[in-house]
UniProtKB/TrEMBL annotation:
Source species: Oryctolagus cuniculus
Transmembrane segments: 7-28, 48-67, 145-166, 172-196, 237-261
GO MF terms held by the record: ATPase binding; proton-transporting ATPase activity, rotational mechanism
A cellular component term, taken from the record's GO annotations: vacuolar proton-transporting V-type ATPase complex
Cellular compartments annotated: Membrane
Protein purpose: Essential component of the vacuolar proton pump (V-ATPase), a multimeric enzyme that catalyzes the translocation of protons across the membranes. Required for assembly and activity of the V-ATPase.
Entry's Gene Ontology BP terms: vacuolar acidification
InterPro entries referenced in this protein's UniProt entry, alphabetically: V-ATPase_116kDa_su (IPR002490)
Family recorded in the similarity comment: Belongs to the V-ATPase 116 kDa subunit family.
Subunit structure and binding partners: V-ATPase is a heteromultimeric enzyme made up of two complexes: the ATP-hydrolytic V1 complex and the proton translocation V0 complex. The V1 complex consists of three catalytic AB heterodimers that form a heterohexamer, three peripheral stalks each consisting of EG heterodimers, one central rotor including subunits D and F, and the regulatory subunits C and H. The proton translocation complex V0 consists of the proton transport subunit a, a ring of proteolipid subunits c9c'', rotary subunit d, subunits e and f, and the accessory subunits ATP6AP1/Ac45 and ATP6AP2/PRR. Interacts with SPAAR.
Membrane topology annotation: Multi-pass membrane protein
Protein name: V-type proton ATPase subunit a
Main location: membrane
Keywords on record: Hydrogen ion transport, Ion transport, Membrane, Transmembrane, Transmembrane helix, Transport
């Protein structure tokens, strides 16, 4: 999974091609390079990881296409889904509007301005937007959170098979189960909130979308506004309070019960 997680961070189509070509060159000339017995420590380290570098390059090409990022520039492969023309025909834009404003914002609620999601990756029009970094950083952060939490849950799930194979039921009852409950109560819930916010708000209601970061912080502080207008959904306060309490109960479940059980078993064997 490391090459893919590296690509999520790297995410450049052009640089990914260069990395892939370099790795392919090392793989194809593997026997010749091995026979030369190069004593350069830096090259030897890179050469030893040639197959991992190859995977890193291939995955970087993939994530670079998702980010639509090639040497820090966007590729207009399918044509942008955004159109300026309806802002003149169906809205109140004029030539004077263009000349009198250094920055203008397209309104996706106007019919024809937004033609739907880009077929693959990020729409190239974001490359010329003034809020490009704000949008891309938010997108990449959310995607990294989703992939990271899935990766952690997968790793914890693998530990279950180890516990079953080595026949350690205590590790299951006082390790695996509370760990899964703890992670899903907090971080799994955060992933659900991310997807919910993506689907619950459209072009007409996006200006009222609350910040997930503020909501997640308030979840631990048990701080909620008096007005329910800023809530993501009805009953949010009760559900979040319940999840925090469950997560807190998992802490002593993980840290205290297993040592106490092991101590009791030790004393019982000692008295025998």
């Amino acid at each position: 999974t490391f090459p893919f997680l590296f690509a999520v961070m790297f995410g450049d189509f052009g640089h990914g091609i260069l990395m892939t070509l370099f790795a392919v060159w090392m793989v194809l000339r593997e026997s010749r390079l091995l026979s030369q017995k190069n004593e350069n420590e830096m090259f030897s380290t890179v050469f030893s990881g040639r197959y991992i570098i190859l995977l890193m390059g291939v995955f970087s090409i993939y994530t670079g296409l998702i980010y639509n990022d090639c040497f820090s520039k966007s590729l207009n492969i399918f044509g942008s889904s955004w159109s300026v023309r309806p802002m003149f025909t169906l809205s109140n834009w004029t030539e004077d509007t263009l000349r009198g404003n250094p920055v203008l914002q397209l309104n996706p609620s106007v019919p024809g301005v937004f033609g739907g999601p880009y077929p693959f990756g990020i729409d190239p029009i974001w490359n010329i937007a003034t809020n490009k970094l704000t949008f891309l950083n938010s997108f990449k952060m959310k995607m990294s959170v989703i992939l990271g939490i899935i990766h952690m849950l997968f790793g914890v799930s693998l530990s279950l098979f180890n516990h079953i194979y080595f026949k350690k039921p205590l590790n299951i009852y006082f390790g695996f189960i509370p760990e899964i409950i703890f992670m899903t109560s907090l971080f799994g819930y955060l992933v659900i909130l991310i997807f919910y916010k993506w689907t619950a708000y459209d072009a007409h209601t996006s200006e009222h979308a609350p910040s997930l970061l503020i909501h997640f912080i308030n979840m631990f502080l048990f701080s909620y506004p008096d007005s329910g207008s800023s809530m993501l959904y009805s009953g949010q306060k009760g559900i979040q309070c319940f999840l925090v309490v469950v997560a807190l109960l998992c802490v002593p479940w993980m840290l205290l019960f297993k040592p106490l059980v092991l101590r009791r078993q030790y004393l019982r064997r000692k008295h025998l």
